[in-house]
């Protein structure tokens, strides 16, 4: 299961917006004529969007298929319920930004958790990113707030102290730090929302989340768990090679708590 994102976006054409593979039930995901992808419509309750609203978002695809810039595929295995979920969302926060995510559920309710994270996490991330761009003052709904949500000052302090970039800050693109803070907020809010779910015990069920945002020539990755982001590139002989962009985050890997403590998500050391 996975998704593939092209590094080059072809020039827009009249039919490009409608080039989406039809779903198994004849519906077209991300079809033209739906809600604008760039986020002009404010999200609903707590930074959420309903399934109907998500289905009408132009440029969003979450089933097997392909567009001009990406392709997705998942296949039923032999273990029972398929607990995989994936999404590509073009024009995510601007006309040149794309969100891509893969979520691998585990546990009795893993399929539900993966689907919930697929539908909710991108919306929370986009809401946080837009709020960050508009300044520190925002409403609770813009913050995607739920009971016990973290505030902006707390998150900014965590990012600056624990994930500070030191002398490299000047070399980073302007969108990096706001997006990094937005990623951290969105992951924490998503985690709290799942913990408070009234019918799903997320202590024994969960999901990985390997996500990326591509804006122009910049690529930012937010990762939790052991799903991997891999980039296809060319070597000196023009042969296609695979470059792993993420490091597996597992409780039994010492590197998770030492050399890679600068990741967005810093798992607690098991007692």
From TrEMBL:
Going by the UniProt record, its keywords in alphabetical order are: Hydrolase, Protein phosphatase
Which reaction is this enzyme known to catalyze?
A: O-phospho-L-threonyl-[protein] + H2O = L-threonyl-[protein] + phosphate; O-phospho-L-seryl-[protein] + H2O = L-seryl-[protein] + phosphate
What InterPro entries does the annotation carry? PP2C, PPM-type-like_dom_sf, PPM-type_phosphatase-like_dom
EC number(s) stated in the UniProt entry for this protein: 3.1.3.16
Q: Which PROSITE patterns match?
A: PPM_2
The molecular function terms of the Gene Ontology recorded here are:
protein serine/threonine phosphatase activity
Domain of life of the organism encoding this protein: Eukaryota
Q: Where is this region: Disordered?
A: 15-50, 131-151
PPM-type phosphatase domain: from which residue to which, for each copy? 69-271
Q: Which CDD domains does its entry note?
A: PP2Cc (cd00143)
| PANTHER family given in the database record | PROTEIN PHOSPHATASE
Question: What name appears for this protein in its UniProt entry?
Answer: protein-serine/threonine phosphatase
Biological source species: Zea mays
């Amino acid at each position: 299961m996975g998704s593939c994102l092209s590094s080059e976006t072809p020039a827009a054409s009249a039919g490009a917006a409608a080039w989406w593979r039809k779903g198994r039930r004849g519906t077209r995901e991300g079809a033209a004529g739906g809600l604008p992808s760039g986020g002009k419509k404010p999200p609903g309750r707590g930074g959420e969007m309903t399934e109907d609203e998500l289905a009408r978002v132009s440029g969003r695809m979450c089933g097997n298929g392909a567009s001009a810039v990406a392709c997705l595929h998942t296949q039923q295995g032999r273990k029972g319920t398929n607990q995989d979920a994936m999404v590509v969302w073009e024009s995510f926060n601007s006309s040149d930004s794309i969100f891509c995510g893969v979520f691998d559920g585990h546990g009795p309710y893993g399929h539900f958790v993966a689907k919930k994270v697929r539908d909710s996490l991108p919306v929370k991330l986009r809401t946080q990113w837009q709020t960050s761009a508009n300044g520190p003052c925002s409403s609770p709904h813009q913050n995607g707030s739920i009971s016990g949500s973290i505030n902006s000052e707390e998150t900014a302090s965590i990012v600056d102290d624990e994930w500070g970039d030191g002398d490299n800050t000047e070399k980073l693109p302007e969108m990096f730090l706001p997006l990094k803070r937005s990623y951290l907020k969105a992951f924490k809010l998503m985690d709290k929302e799942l913990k408070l779910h009234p019918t799903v015990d997320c202590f024994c069920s969960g999901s990985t989340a390997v996500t990326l945002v591509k804006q122009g020539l910049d690529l930012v990755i937010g990762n939790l768990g052991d799903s991997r982001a891999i980039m296809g590139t060319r070597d000196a002989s023009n042969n296609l090679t695979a470059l792993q962009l993420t490091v597996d985050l597992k409780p039994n890997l010492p590197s998770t708590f030492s050399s890679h403590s600068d990741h967005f998500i810093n798992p607690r050391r098991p007692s």
